[in-house]
Specification:
DNA-binding; about 20% helix; alpha+beta; about 270 residues; four-stranded antiparallel sheet
Length: about 270
DNA sequence: ACTGGATCCTGACTGC
DNA sequence: TGCAGTCAGGATCCAG
């Protein structure tokens, strides 16, 4: 479920509850997430959260006093919500970060593809983070970057922009949207997209992600922010899950095609 | 170095 | 109603 805008929305929701406050307890009801939740997460107990950040789709809850912090990934079906620590847990509420304030940040994840780990020292050096590409909303990301990395690549440009080593945070929804916005067929070989079109693609990725963040993310089925509310970008999707509906630009029916085992949506007339 | 495929897991939905 | 099959927003790992 969550792509970069949804993770960013979640971060902005939980940060005020965490930053500057002490963690009273880490309650792990079910430790079998993508990787087992390590006992080390209890090192957060009794410590003040110094900062909350995001890198790619990972949430970093930094605890300077402990020389490390919590690393959280929402996977495909995870969400974080703020509630009272004594609210009864619901199905799939696997972990609570209980705060001194009496509030708690509760991690729910039906499919358990999410992760909660502990990092020591510099989080950027963590094995899950160290080989990641640039943030799409940073100055390190550009059309020139995409063009350079794509030379000689025969795989579909859609799979290319979803590869976290190329650029982070572009998931299945926004990949289809950005390719439509820049007029590029998702199945086209990445290495056969011109420099000018990579420039347009980079701009589209930036625009669609920034706009989705302003709308509080995309709720297709079950995404909710930290307050339990949905995001409002779904109503603005141009091609995603619009198979058979008229293209907003030319009226041609939107098509669906599986690329890299993921559904891809595109206009066969507007995209080349 | 790159690419495609399998895989982890539950729930919602479809068609018989 | 029930049941089998399909699909889902991620990303790692492995074989070739």
């Amino acid at each position: 479920m969550p792509e970069l805008p949804e993770v960013e929305t979640t971060l902005r929701g939980i940060a005020p509850c965490l930053e500057g406050h002490a963690i009273a307890a880490m309650v792990v009801r079910n430790s079998s997430l993508r990787w087992p939740v390590p006992a080390a997460v209890s090192r957060a107990e009794g410590q003040v959260v110094s900062a909350c950040r995001r890198r790619a789709k990972y949430l970093l809850i930094e605890i300077a006093e402990a020389g490390g912090g919590l690393l959280l990934h929402l996977g495909m079906s995870g969400s974080l919500r703020i509630c009272d620590a004594d609210d009864a847990p619901r199905k799939h509420d696997h972990v609570d970060i209980v705060m001194d304030s009496g509030l708690c940040v509760r991690f729910n994840d039906p499919r358990r593809f999410g992760a909660l780990l502990w990092w020591d020292g510099n989080p950027e050096a963590h094995e899950l983070l160290r080989d990641l590409g640039p943030e799409p909303l940073s100055n390190d990301f550009s059309g020139e970057h995409l063009w350079r990395l794509s030379r000689g690549r025969k795989g579909a440009v859609k799979s290319f922009i979803m590869d976290g080593h190329v650029v982070v945070g572009v998931g299945n929804i926004y990949a289809s949207e950005a390719l439509f916005m820049s007029g590029i067929l998702p199945s086209r070989a990445a290495g056969r997209v011109s420099a000018a079109r990579h420039e347009a693609l980079a701009a589209a990725i930036r625009d669609v992600l920034a706009h989705a963040i302003r709308r509080g993310g995309t709720t297709l089925r079950d995404f909710v922010n930290a307050e339990g509310n949905p995001g409002y970008f779904a109503q603005e999707l141009l091609v995603y899950e619009r198979e058979g509906n008229a293209c907003f630009q030319c009226g041609t029916p939107i098509r669906r095609k599986v690329i890299g085992q993921r559904s891809s949506y595109f206009c066969p007339r507007c995209q080349r």
